[in-house]
Amino acid sequence: METRTDFIDRIKRICAVNITFDGKQKQYLINDVWADEIEGEYFKNDVYDLEDTLMENLRFVSRKREVIVELCELLQQKIAWYEARAITNLAFLDHIQSSVRELYGSVSKKDKFTAASILQCDDNDAAEVDEIIYTLKRFEEEFDFYKNEEHIGKVILLHALHLHYKSLKALCHFLLKLEKDVDTIDFDDLASSGAYLKTQRQLGKCTLKFDKITTSVFFSILTECDIIRMDHKESLNKIKIQKFIEENFNYTSDDGEVKPIHRINKENAKFNKGEYYQTQLKVLDQLIHLFEENKAYVKRINKIP
């Protein structure tokens, strides 16, 4: 059983970011993790774990609303700290420079991103692009296309910190909603409280009746056929679409469970070219069948020969 103090400590740990600059590698670490290894789910996993534990333990708390409000206020302080320093802009890095600890590491680490690899991004397959590349491409002109490669580490740090900020915002949103609904939830019934949590995570998203692989291929088809587009640059278009899908869609697993989409581009990477084309044909056949059925229905109800 976790107490109010335990949850306050958890929130403080989630909010904390200790930034280190490795002078040898010219790269940054957050909480001892290389910034270029921090992806979308890194911070979210801690958030989900706290939400799960909170829903399981609130039945033991007598003043539930007060505890939820207190946790939310702690989060809002950190969120306000980020927003006051303009987390979405490069100027944010100037604000935090004094708090960055420096070291000269002894561990060799291969750079994931170089100026050359960023410039070649337009030629990459959809499976190879990700949000870090998107952020690097976004600022490439401001940094003269990374002729000074130390700037790559700075942009990657900004990307990782923005993910942290977004995870705090999502948790705060959940707590605000929970505070409003607290009197309607039966916390003694773990199935009921678990269902509430599941519903909140799916809220506001469109659910596709496809499994994850079919969903991935489906959106690849829409992108390749230029039916959907979010940027005139091909590489950025793929990244933006991927991000939009993951933020706005769920898929349906084989056992009928609705699940959020994460790292959808990795699904296509599981196939070799022959397997991918076979899967693509299968999905196209399914779509053609659905469209033909709908076409026949429209013709029938409108009495069109």
Layout of strands and helices, then pairs:
Blueprint lengths: L3 H12 L3 E4 L4 E4 L2 E2 L6 H17 L6 H21 L6 H6 L4 E3 L11 H5 L11 H8 L11 H32 L8 H13 L3 E2 L4 H13 L9 H15 E4 L5 E3 L4 H5 L3 H29 L4
Parallel strand pairs: 1-4, 5-6
Antiparallel strand pairs: 1-2, 2-3, 6-7
* Continuous helix count: 12
Number of strands: 7
- Placed side by side, the strands forming the largest sheet appear as 3-2-1-4
Mean pLDDT: 87
Order of helices and strands: HEEEHHHEHHHHEHHEEHH
Roughly what fraction of the amino acids lie in strands? 5-15%
What integer value in Å does the Rg equal? 23 Å
Secondary-structure-derived class:
alpha/beta
The major beta sheet can be summarized as:
4 strands, mixed
**Amino- and carboxy-terminal Cα gap:** 68 Å
Question: What coarse outline follows from CA principal-axis ratios?
Answer: flat
Low-confidence stretches: 123-128
**Roughly how much helix do the residues carry, as a percent range?**
55-70%
Description:
58% of the residues lie in helices and 7% in strands. With 305 residues, it is α/β, with parallel strands linked by helices. It has a domain at 1-111 and 149-203. It has a four-stranded mixed beta sheet with strand order 3-2-1-4, with helices on one face. Strands 5-6-7 form a three-stranded mixed beta sheet. Strand 2 (27-30) and strand 3 (33-34) form a beta hairpin. The model is unreliable at 123-128 (pLDDT under 50).
